[in-house]
Amino acid sequence: MGVAGPIRIEDSADSRIAGFVSIRERDLTGREGRFIAEGTVVLRMLAAAHRSGRGIAAEAILLLESRVAGLASLLAEFPPEVPVYMADARVFDAIAGFNMHRGVLALGRFDQMPGRDALIANLPTCSLVLAACGISNHDNMGSLFRNAAAFGVDAVLMDQTTCDPMYRKAIRVSVGSVLTLPFAREGTAADLIERLQAGGFAIWGLSPRGETDVGEIAPAPRTALLVGTEGEGLPQTILSAVRTARIRQRPGLDSLNVAMAAGIALHQVARVNGRI
Amino acid sequence: MGVAGPIRIEDSADSRIAGFVSIRERDLTGREGRFIAEGTVVLRMLAAAHRSGRGIAAEAILLLESRVAGLASLLAEFPPEVPVYMADARVFDAIAGFNMHRGVLALGRFDQMPGRDALIANLPTCSLVLAACGISNHDNMGSLFRNAAAFGVDAVLMDQTTCDPMYRKAIRVSVGSVLTLPFAREGTAADLIERLQAGGFAIWGLSPRGETDVGEIAPAPRTALLVGTEGEGLPQTILSAVRTARIRQRPGLDSLNVAMAAGIALHQVARVNGRI
């Protein structure tokens, strides 16, 4: 941010903030390699991601003018070439088109992120991976990343049918972990399993019909926890290709939410492997 | 449902379905001892609650006509005096005022539910309680109930500042567990702790600053897990009155979501006490 401080925007049609216009609808349709970060915590994670050189960069920041003073130290974490704009509430809402942002928005860009095979090839000797197939709900996606970060996952690997974690709501629910945790989303579930097996991973598919209690998953230098779609879970073809684990629960109820189940399992695996 | 099958509603102003009008807005304001159940799974839990005589009853069911045939066996679980209405999509949406209901709605009534002290007095010798203070988000509330049901909690006890679990969205996220799991919401957190202590409960307050790892919580005939508000967690005054437990996680991140933390802790406590 230049020495003059944030640039005041008086008109929602100002071309300098065109990237922020109607973000609610726009991120549902096209992507253009851009994403939206909302809120202070996510902005802090974006600053960390920007500095890490992982292929994620902040393009611009837009603040409600009443938020500027309180965010000075956070803004200083961004390089000076990232423009910071501010607007009053009327102009701000006219730009963004909704008011869930708490007055803190950033536009980001991602490029040159390593693909799945490159990520796997670069994982440390001792590593923990979360693998996800067919996740379709952005809340669950965000929650999976938040848990993955909390329990020391090295990478999140998704099949091509899984929804995009760079979607605004997923980033928000992840409290920004999507921006800092390496991930890849490509190929089929079968491909992903094959690559993980070739990489020496013990792969545990999580299912209510799993054979091993999650509390009995043995420590291993490389463990991958695999979760499936919200409704049906992992298909039998996948479950028969990997080891399977279950979370015991009372009978007669819907199985746990996928992010909840992953959180419980990751916590167990992280504990037995001394990762937390 | 009478032998003639569901009653067709042709007009959204029909007085017989007045209870379903604009439910989205209405449950935000007044309650009148009524609640809305949405979706097939919740409807099934409502049928179970109705039969259990716990003070929860179905008053009426409203279905999109295309859903009627597939729900015949579920409708048969309700007593014949519960009216079943059906409407086409246009009339249905005009009644309900939004379209998140998947064409399955029920209006319920609750009364004569036992209070906190009566619930505690009637808990079995070996029991597990989830206690919650200051929860303000209905998604978290629903998720707490869903986890409590999954891990065999006997009752959910909340202080008076906690939000209402009978709110439509909380019931939906709980996949209906709010309707089947005994709960009470009254009094202060300090009162609640005192009553649980008098009842011989080992009370564990969950906090990132907790002393004992959740995996080390000792088995006990009666255990209460206590969780606090989404933002601040449990206040120090409460934490110093109980034993405290933490979920280990990587440093430098936001603490886990409250429902996630409760799920992980309940899973551990349920396992060591042989409840699942």
Kindly describe this structure.
- The structure is a homodimer of 276-residue chains.
- Chain A has 276 residues and is an alpha/beta fold.
- Chain A has two domains: 7-110, 60s Ribosomal Protein L30, Chain: A (2-Layer Sandwich); 116-272, SPOUT methyltransferase, trefoil knot domain (Alpha/beta knot, 3-Layer(aba) Sandwich).
- Chain A has helices at residues 23-29, 40-52, 65-68, 72-75, 89-96, 116-121, 138-150, 168-173, 177-180, 189-198, 236-239, 258-272; strands spanning 7-8, 34-38, 56-64, 84-87, 104-110, 127-132, 155-158, 183-185, 202-206, 212-213, 222-227, 243-246.
- Chain A has a seven-stranded parallel β-sheet with strand order 8-7-6-11-9-12-10, with helices on both faces.
- The A-B interface holds A 41, 143, 146-147, 149-152, 175, 177, 215, 247-250, 253-254, 256-257, 259-260, 263-264, 267, 270-271, 276 and B 41, 143, 146-147, 149-152, 175, 177, 215, 247-250, 253-254, 256-257, 259-260, 263-264, 267, 270-271, 276.
- Chains A, B: Keywords: Methyltransferase, Transferase.
- Chains A, B: This is RNA methyltransferase.
- Chains A, B: InterPro entries: Alpha/beta_knot_MTases, Ribosomal_eL30-like_sf, rRNA_Methyltransferase, SpoU_MeTrfase, tRNA_m1G_MTases_N.
